[in-house]
Design brief:
- By secondary structure, this protein is of the alpha/beta class.
- The chain has a single domain, classed as 3-Layer(aba) Sandwich (Rossmann fold), CATH 3.40.50.
- It is built from 4 helices and 7 strands; from the N terminus they run βαββαββαβαβ.
- The strands form 2 sheets. The chain has a 5-stranded mixed β-sheet, with helices on one face. Strands 2-7 form a two-stranded antiparallel sheet.
- Helix 1 (19-30) crosses helix 4.
- The longest helix has 19 residues, at 131-149.
- GO terms for molecular function: aspartic-type endopeptidase activity; enzyme activator activity.
- InterPro entries: Pept_HybD-like_dom_sf, Peptidase_A31.
- Keywords: Aspartyl protease, Hydrolase, Protease.
Length: 168
């Protein structure tokens, strides 16, 4: 069983909704992913990965979200509290909150859930992130790595390939 599953969420053609996907791509480019970590590209249908997520030890979700307070801050929430289905954070068909509640009812909820997220500024159609979220990718990549490393998962950086979005 994997020590952690990293799940990106979002629609890559809906501007900032593609943040989770872009973050996971950057992370995979920068780091050699160890055996105990499984990276999943969930898109807009996290339920498609139900069988892989069910009962996992640790689910780390990467997504653009709506926060109750203002700002487009990058946040790491660990552990993520139980989500309220009435206030959907993302714009996905069966959202993360609903999926986690379904798993809980079936006795298959992940033991721990964390979020690396940033508030979206735009959900317009198009593949480009807003400037605000594009600028947060390097820090988000580092925060994800730090979260894993502080929990005993050792990462090795790949040789730089000219990707400025994930270099310090």
């Amino acid at each position: 069983m994997n020590a952690a599953i990293v799940l990106s969420l979002g629609h890559p053609l809906r501007s900032d909704d593609g943040f989770g996907e872009r973050l996971l791509q950057r992370f995979e480019q920068r780091y050699e992913i160890p055996e105990q970590v499984l990276c999943l590209h969930g898109g807009t249908r996290p339920v498609a990965h139900y069988d892989r997520i069910a009962g996992c030890r640790w689910l780390i979700v990467l997504d653009a979200v709506r926060y109750s307070d203002a700002g487009s801050d990058l946040r790491v929430i660990d552990p993520l509290p139980v989500l309220d289905c009435e206030r959907q954070l993302a714009v996905h068909e069966l959202g993360l909150a609903e999926l986690l509640q379904l798993m809980a009812v079936l006795g298959e909820a992940p033991a721990r859930v964390s979020l690396v997220g940033a508030a979206f500024a735009s959900l317009d159609w198009g593949p480009a992130l807003s400037r605000a979220l594009e600028q947060r990718l390097p820090q988000a990549c580092e925060r994800l790595a730090t979260l894993l490393e502080h929990n005993g998962i050792r990462l090795r950086q790949r040789a730089p390939q000219g990707d400025p979005a994930c270099t310090s």
